[in-house]
Amino acid sequence: MKLVKAYIRPMLLEEVYKALRSEGHCCITVFRGEGAGQYTDPDHAHGSLQFPAMHSKVVKIEIAAVDEDVNSIIEIIQQTASTGSRGDGIIFVMPIENMIRIRDGEEGPKVIE
């Protein structure tokens, strides 16, 4: 089991979500944020009183997946979220030790099936 975290441009979230759904990857969590780093798009970076450093708005998508779905998820995000410009984002993949559904205590991959 893996956790896929992707930081993408907010304007592409709906398109990425629709592409994931169409391939059967239904369950995602989305966070809105701001970040600074090598992935920041200099043409869309801005400062603010709350975050004075130049930064970009980002959306973080988190998807828990069984190992055999990870490559498909990564490919969909890469293809759908890419504009070919700096600032398109980054994807992280991490192992998940266990999953436990709170409602009934079910454990393991069945939780996300």
Task: Report on this structure.
With 113 residues, the protein is of the alpha+beta class. The protein has one domain (2-112): Alpha-Beta Plaits, CATH 3.30.70.120. 22% of the residues lie in helices and 27% in strands. Helix 1 (13-22) runs antiparallel to helix 2.
Brief account:
Pfam families: P-II (PF00543). The chain has 113 residues and is an alpha+beta fold.
What's the layout of helices and strands?
Blueprint: E1 2-8, H1 13-22, E2 29-35, E3 56-65, H2 67-81, E4 89-95
Antiparallel strand pairs: 1-3, 1-4, 2-3
Helix pairs in contact: 1-2
Features:
single chain; 113 residues; 4-stranded antiparallel sheet; enzyme regulator activity; N-reg_PII/ATP_PRibTrfase_C; N-reg_PII; alpha+beta; Alpha-Beta Plaits; ATP binding
- Could you say what the CATH architecture is? 2-Layer Sandwich
Principal-axis shape = globular
Please count the beta strands (DSSP E, at least 2 residues each): 4
Radius of gyration: 16 Å
- Uncertain residue segments: none
- What average pLDDT do the residues reach? 88
What is the CATH topology classification name?
Answer: Alpha-Beta Plaits
Strand-and-helix sequence, N→C?
A: EHEEHE
Number of domains: 1
Largest sheet: 4 strands, antiparallel
Query: Structural class, from secondary structure content?
Result: alpha+beta
Pfam families: P-II
Protein name: P-II family nitrogen regulator
GO molecular function: ATP binding; enzyme regulator activity
Organism: Gracilimonas sediminicola
